[in-house]
Amino acid sequence: MTRIPGVILAGGRATRMGGGDKGMLQLGGAKLLDHVLARLGPQCGELAISANGDPDRFSAFGLPVLADTLPDFPGPLAGVLAGLDWAAENGADAIVTAAADTPFLPRDLVARLADAAAQKRVPIALAASPDETGAPRRHPTFGLWPVSLREDLRAELSGGLRKIVLWTERHGYATALFAASPFDPFFNVNTPQDMMRAEAILNGGAA
Fold it and tell me: What is this enzyme's catalytic activity, as reactions (predicted)?
């Protein structure tokens, strides 16, 4: 079976880290994006980066850079749509997305998302992990998305939709629940304190 393409959502600006692309921040001698690629790459077929602005800043990665196809930066779903358009051009049936600031994402993310969608017989799957109370917390930037829904998504975004879960609930989705011990694999770097914690996870060998 052809492996599912992966799209890294790198549109977040590191406003709490001094600005710029969060995926370009250094962790353990490598960029956050390098860590994401090292984990997601072996799980996927082709890879692409979803980001706006000058694509040349990502040239060192040697991957396609997908700009939003809709104006006014409507958020992560626009990145999903750009990824679906790219996948359609390449004859793929679906994509898996991951965030560029999450260096410890699961090494079995793609397989678990695909299994969850197949078992529930729904087109979309989202990742989740337990919150402080043990309840599942969804991570909607980590999802399996079918190319067949791209025109529906385009129409919804053009109509003002911005929240991922509103759209996924409309079509039906499965949840793949990942353990949050010894750390939450969807931990993302937003602040200098988060970077210190990421360094501690990396140096602790638990990642």
Answer: Mo-molybdopterin + GTP + H(+) = Mo-molybdopterin guanine dinucleotide + diphosphate
